[in-house]
Write a structure and sequence with these properties.
heterodimer, A: 804 residues, alpha+beta, Aldehyde Oxidoreductase, domain 4, Aldehyde Oxidoreductase, domain 3, seven-stranded mixed β-sheet, 28 strands, 27% helix, 24% strand, B: 160 residues, Ubiquitin-like (UB roll), 2 domains, 5 helices
Chain lengths: 804, 160
Amino acid sequence: MPAAPVLPKLVGQRVKRREDPRLIQGRGTYVDDVKIAGMQHIAFKRSDIAHGKITSLDVSAAQAMEGVEAVFTGAQIAEFLAPMPIGTPFPSPDHRAVATDVVRYAGEPVAVVVASDRYVARDAADAIMVSYDSFPAVVDPELAMTGKPTVIHEGFPNNLAVPLVPSGTGVSPDGKSVDDTAVDRAFAQAEVVIKQRMLNQRLVPNAMEPRGVVANFEPGKGTMTIWSSTQNPHILRTMIAAMLGMGQDQVRAIAPEVGGGFGAKINIYGEEYVTAAVSKRLGIPVKWIEDRSEAFVATTHGRDILGYVELAAKRDGTVLGLKMRLIADIGAYNMLLTAAIPTLTMLMANATYDIPAIRTTLTEVFTNKTPTDAYRGAGRPEATYFVERAMDMLARELNMDPAEVRRKNFIASDKFPFQTQMGAVYDSGDYAKALDAALVHSKWNELKKERDAAKAQGRLVGLGLSMYVEVCGIGPSATLPTGGWEHAQVTVERDGRISATTGASPHGQGNETTFAQMLADQFGVPLEHVTILHGDTAVVKQGIGTFGSRSQAVGGAALHMAGTKAKSKMAKFAAALLEAHEDDLVFENGMISVKGAPARGKSFAEVSHYAYIPVPLPEGLEPGVSEEAFFEPTNNTYPFGCHISMIEIDRDTGEPTLLRLVAVDDAGHLINPLIVEGQIHGGLAQGIGQAMIEEAVYNSDGQLLTGSFMDYALPRAIDFPRFELHSTVTPTPVNPLGAKGVGEAGTLGSTPSIVSAAVDALSEFGVKHIDMMLRPEKLWRIINGPRHSSGQGLRQGSGQGGVA
Amino acid sequence: MGPTRDAMTQVSIKVNGKMRKALIEPRTLLVHFLREQLNLTGTHVGCDTSQCGACTVLIDGRSAKSCTIFAVQAEGSEIVTIEGLAKDGQLHPLQNGFWEEHGLQCGYCTPGMIMSGVNLLSDNPNPSEKEIREGISGNFCRCTGYQHIVNAVQNAAGRR
């Protein structure tokens, strides 16, 4: 037998993606590319005011238009669609997919048009006449908490969605018993206390593909097929079945190519329920595709958490205690995970530090804005920002190096697993290692000299450093209403090729490549012989989906488990053929052979063939090789890192320029470093975007002023320097791969490091904190002194709260 | 597209080397003509204000945002879309560059980004990094942070 070529081990290699050939040739199929004979198009009529009661809704002109199939008002939709469910245990007001009476944010749907094409549907929606009795709007959460000037939902006095939840040292797990002794003692013993109000501002996720849905109810069969630009088709199936009164066996959900999600496509939206319900009602296929302007108001926003942060420390830099009072502006309604996101900010208040006493409280407030939900990082960037900015202010107050004040307070590497004050158990970590790597790779000491030299020349150059620790691999089933496992099935086909399904439905993460790398190595077969299937509930039996940086840590672990089972069964068939013991076999180079005797082997394809025509059938074996696994993680994973930024601010215009960004990330073992780099780059871009140019701005009437790409500054290629990436490797014991997850990490450390760099650059003006984003005009006012800092007429006038 | 047949107008546009004629509503955007009439769905729509560039195609050799012009304005023009870029099964150097350098994640901006890259390299076959970043600044990408896209263009220019 000719010697098979030696196959390289692929895990850990920079394998280029198998998804790409179709995508670079325009051959991918996104939702808007799905066409079905007889399909009609949906358009939503949306409220153009932020708060008011619908007094009349005239659809006659729309209904009379040629090509219009049907028009539904909110009341008519309510006849066949119940209020929308949420996925968190918090109390929630009724939320109709289409408003029936009162509208509570600009962009809330009030009517639905079904028409022959998208132009007619839009024309008809525009022809619907709506009159409102306007109510006052409230967009400031601290004002909303007073119940003035309006109460948005009956039964939620002072607009409190979640009145006040305490967490941390001395708080019982149910939050009912609160003992302040330790926290009070920490602050009583403090030699220095840092206090700062900080806003982690509202952002618009802006996946490049807006949302879209195609629903095809087939009356003869009584089945529903729904295509949606979603991160989690299995959750979509569950929710659609429940809302339409169908069985989950009767609903097939498909996430085709999904053009980005960033958390905003976790939520199951009203438009998904309506499109499906209308298809069922009319018995025809229907499509809805979101416009970008629509997406700005109709797709959930992210962040918008206000933090009152207090840090108690000794003058040697030892942190004694932390208080963090959080106020989350969640917008007008609770969506699927809305209320849970800010709880992650509390969970991660411990950051990378061994802080003896922490008290956080969280209040969630309704305002007349688009609802918030997950956005890349989802609660953890906020925690990182608050704590890291406070640590930086402490370093500045004590005139210490920001690296050293952090090092002094790190959770020591021999203390893992580490139980935090906030109830998390950090799986593994070595924070000093990541910090040291960042200092070495950035040449920190030389950078400081460079900064000082620039400052001596009158340039406004600053350095910022931030640590972070993340929650990834979400998460044990106890932490998620959907269950926190993931599912995979590995099938060895009759010809020796391998098909595998994963419930981790990707939207750019490259699972078709990384998962194939894993299986190719596991079975010793070429990468080209492995196909990864995903995103279709008719193909993928079970799944949860992609969020919380869980694809590799949970989905990959499930795949590894299913692969191990399939390999074990292949070994049994091979053992029978080779008259060897199954434990003595090696799988490599497309062969299964006896250890130490490579000549005694059969090709993988031969063994596969035998598995399906098993004559004779080995005793105790069923024919075929198709094995599945559910992986239930015992804990989250906690990747970490250190990001360093250098920025320069133009003294004349206030315009900031990011000069350097050095990132050290520790995500445990990496399957494909090329893809990991891409994930980190993307996260950095969103973190830098938040720090420097992105912000969802509302006026006092509740109108989104940054409601298009003309007004909302999405970062462009010219906004970034070349990122400098490095890594350390601290594997997790939580899953068999040692992989922690990396999708969101970039958004955590970059943001505070940049703001701290800006404060450093402007230190000569006595500024201690600057709220994001770093708008040039805001920086110019700091440079030009108090007479320019009133911020009159500017919503962000309070942004320089730290000016001494 | 559209209900009022009497208001339809005929267009003749050469797309990816083939002459295409269709009866369309005069208000039909070029991108919808390509996507819905010709089923060339590789050209994407990412915004409604001409910022994102996902709809970028080549019109008579120059990049253009196909959401910003009517199909009737392209009458008599020659258009190349992402589907027409590879020749005889050979990827265009930019397509290859994007693949080699991991220049895409979700892939939604990619066709437009590649078409802008084609335009950039035809104007300037040997661009600096800054020139590349400026040259693709009419195109948004939310996934990659652009670094691997810059690498992809450099790769296509023979610089990597």
